[in-house]
Each structure stands twice: as C-alpha cells, then as structure tokens.
Amino acid sequence: MTVKHALNIVKMKKMKQEQIPLTMITAYDYPSARLAEEAGVDLILVGDSLGNVVLGYDTTIPVTIEDMVYHSRAVARGAQHTFIVTDLPFMTYHGSIDETMRQVRRVMQEGHAHAVKLEGGAEIAHTVQAVVQAGVPVLGHIGLTPQSVNQIGGYRIQGKDQADAERLMADAKALEQAGAFAIVLELVTEQVAEAISKELAIPTIGIGAGRGCDGQVLVFHDVLKYAPDYREKKFVKTYADIGEQIRQGISEYVNEVKKRVFPGEQHVFAADEKVVDGLYGKGKVEG
C-alpha cells in the first residue's frame, strides 16, 4: 500500500497554478479524521464549528482554546499523513501579539496542527503577518465569519453589492500580502468569489462560494448527513445518509435486547464443563 504524503503550502500554490482543485473537509475526532484521510482529502480543518456540530452550542462563540487543542490532537492521531489546519477560536487573536502567539503555540505544539485559521480581513492582517513571520502557516477566512455572526447580523450571504464586493477583494489582498497561504471564502456570491480567486496568487477554498474557487470545503457531518436534526443547506451536497443508518441500527439493537434476541449463540463464550460443575455443583445444570 502506497503511503500518502501530506501536502505543503508550496504544493498547494502549485496546484492552483495547474488548476487542480483542493479538497478540504472538517473533522473533529480520530475516526472521522482517519476515514477522511483514507478517502483521499487534501486538507483537514479542525473547525470551531465543532461547537455547533459536536458540542451542541448554537454558535461557535463558546468554543475555547482547550476545545480546539483537544480535538486537534485527536484529529492529528487519526490523519498522520494529511495537512491539518486548526481554528483559533473566538477572541484568542484580537489582543496583544504575545497573547495570540501563546494560543498559536498551544495549537501547534499540543494540538499537532500544521497551520492555523483566523477569521477576518484587513483588520487582522498585522496579526496574520506576525504569525507567519513566526514560522506558522496561516489560512485566512473571509465572507461569512461565524465568530462575528452577532456583529454582521446573522448568517447572511456576502458580496451582494458593489461596496461589499470591493471590501471582500480588499480583505483578500490584505491577507495575501500578510502572508496567508490560502483563504476560505464562506457564503460569498459566486461572481465575487471567482473574481477574488483570479486576482490572488494563493488558493481560495470555497464553502457556499460557487464554482470559481480553487478548492472546496464542507463539514464532515453535512457531507454524510450525520446529525439527529439535520437541516438542509443550499450550498451543501450530501453524499450519504449515515444519520438515518445509525438511528435504524441502534433502534434494531434496542429491540433485539428487549426481545432477548441479542446476544445470540454466536456471541457467547462457553466454559469447560469442569468450570460449570465447580460453580453450580455436578449434575445441577441439566438441559
């Protein structure tokens, strides 16, 4: 079996030049990361979306650096040959550079990530530059930025008018100039995302940003419809419905236990007759 080698940021830029799309998927634990790697994804994002998806929060805002380090470390164990990017969570990179570096160090050293992702545009470019200069690859993230959902008025499509389009373009250029190796474009109109992708020398990775990006990212649980109360999303295509399979499987298990169908003969271990005699007395266990 051929061992997969993780991408690096130089190869990703070359893939853009050669028009080879990048594939990214979120993963939050060992088994999902292992399966994603075996399926051949280029990058894994340990997103702070884990707050919504696996921790039961309404937004990503409650997610802590401890959450991110814990889940990043699990993903790194599962996908040892895949490039892993881990989110810096809410308000961990808006203070002093020293404080930001402490959070970055934890994600890299304890979480075993290869890169970090920061939400925001021109307003955080100086932070991105400092992190890059410290030797850490940075993935930018503009458009809909979930950590700012309360400020931007909800989960709204970005780039719908000229002023917003120009702002997004300026943010993308600022992040590229600061040294980001790629930029996630989330819920951006297709035309604006395509224009940004053509303008930049670094790859763009879209989620709800149309067909003109240099790559795509989706959430593991959306791709597989793995949720108890899954909500359809226009920008998502689901490729399997394992949520329903899980529900049916567990339901069948419960029913079989209640009816004493499980465990069956094939699931039990037999002791030697002498052991049985010692427990109950010879001749007491008959037919």
Topology, element by element:
Layout: H1 9-17, E1 22-26, H2 30-39, E2 43-46, H3 50-53, H4 65-78, E3 83-87, H5 97-110, E4 115-119, H6 125-133, E5 138-143, H7 149-152, H8 162-178, E6 182-186, H9 190-199, E7 204-207, E8 215-218, H10 220-223, H11 242-258, H12 273-280
Parallel strand pairs: 1-2, 1-8, 2-3, 3-4, 4-5, 5-6, 6-7, 7-8
Helix pairs in contact: 2-4, 4-5, 6-8, 8-9
Tally of helical segments: 12
CATH architecture annotation of the largest domain: Alpha-Beta Barrel
- Overall strand count: 8
Structural class given helices, strands, pairing? Answer: alpha/beta
Mean pLDDT: 94
Low-confidence stretches: none
Approximate shape: elongated
Task: State the separation between the terminal residues, measured CA to CA.
Answer: 52 Å
Give me the side-by-side strand order of the main sheet: 1-2-3-4-5-6-7-8
Note the run of SSEs as H and E: HEHEHHEHEHEHHEHEEHHH
**Helicity range:** 40-55%
The rounded Rg comes to 24 Å
At the first level of CATH, the class of the largest domain is Alpha Beta
Strand content: 5-15%
Largest sheet: 8 strands, parallel, barrel
Return the CATH topology of the largest domain. TIM Barrel
Count of the separate structural domains = 2
The CATH homologous superfamily of the largest domain: Phosphoenolpyruvate-binding domains
Subunit structure: Homodecamer; pentamer of dimers.
Pfam families: Pantoate_transf
Binding site for 3-methyl-2-oxobutanoate: 48-49, 87, 117
Subcellular location: Cytoplasm
Please outline what is shown here.
It is built from 12 helices and 8 strands. With 287 residues, the protein is an alpha/beta fold. The protein has an 8-stranded parallel β-barrel with strand order 1-2-3-4-5-6-7-8, surrounded by 7 helices.
